[in-house]
Design goal:
Length: 321
Amino acid sequence: MVSDPELADRLRKSMADIETRLRDTATDSPDPLISEAAGYLLGAGGKRWRPLLVLLGAQFGDPERASVLDAAVVVELIHAASLYHDDVMDEAPLRHGVPSAHTRWNNKIAILVGDHLVARGATLSLELDETARRAQAEAFERLVRGQVREVAGPRPGQDPVEHYLEVVRDKSASLIALAVRLGGICAGADTATVAALADYGEALGVAFQLSDDVIDIVSGADRAGKVAGTDLRAGVRTLPALLALREGGKLSDVLAAGPIEDAGLRAEALALLRSSAGLAAARAEVSRYAARARSAVRRLPDRPARRVLEPLCELMASRSA
Ligand code: FPP
Ligand code: MG
């Protein structure tokens, strides 16, 4: 993914530093239970996309500034906290292939440990300058708003597709956009570059979530521990389903019932969705956001990191094609 050897080396070293800092910051509590539970999901895995995006954003300024690593840790702490809370709300049994925190302990511990991670992130963000702290606080607010709106459903009169895209922007794209943007801010990149990084992250984040939605319908086999039709089984209506519902017909009847637990019915719904105009329209939406991310990349100065960010746009479009 990173063809420039010097950049690859720098990123590898910084990612290793971030990993150590992340684990230390999460688990330095005087209370052993907090330390154990806070280190639990971080130790179980995660792709660390957000810290990597902070580092890539920082390549457009001075990436050696100390606050760049602080920012990378802060973003991942918020992300980790949101997963502790999300698994309670979704009653998810697993996270990163291990029992979720509320399964391993209980709901109260899982929520409070999420809060602990937020608190540790808040302390660490004191190392960042005011612009960076403000960006972080605003993104956190958006993340929570996205989750609230998802739980609450569309407002009276609001189009369900519009509502869904709003949730995706706030719940998924906000933190991805924050990551690349904070990298730029903390590395002292100029205002136009920081704006381009933010636009890139926002569009990439939406494309990533929407491509995941498409993959849940089109993938035949297991991927990353997930089986096709997971969203249908959970009764989650993602973009392809919401667009397909506009078409009416048999699919509307099958989807209207909510969670589809019966494997036969789920296979039928998947087959209908796969040949629906809704799926094609959702793919077009992924391409639209990928194109938006690409045009933001073109506003960035020509540095080796640009050649890492650009192919990620193609990846979003191709992974769900
Ligand atoms: C995963 O979504 C969850 C998120 C992207 C963010 C959830 C945000 C919160 C729970 C608010 C956080 C609040 C605090 C105070 C930390 P998903 O369920 O669609 O994806 P999944 O399949 O990974 O669970
Ligand atoms: Mg979830």
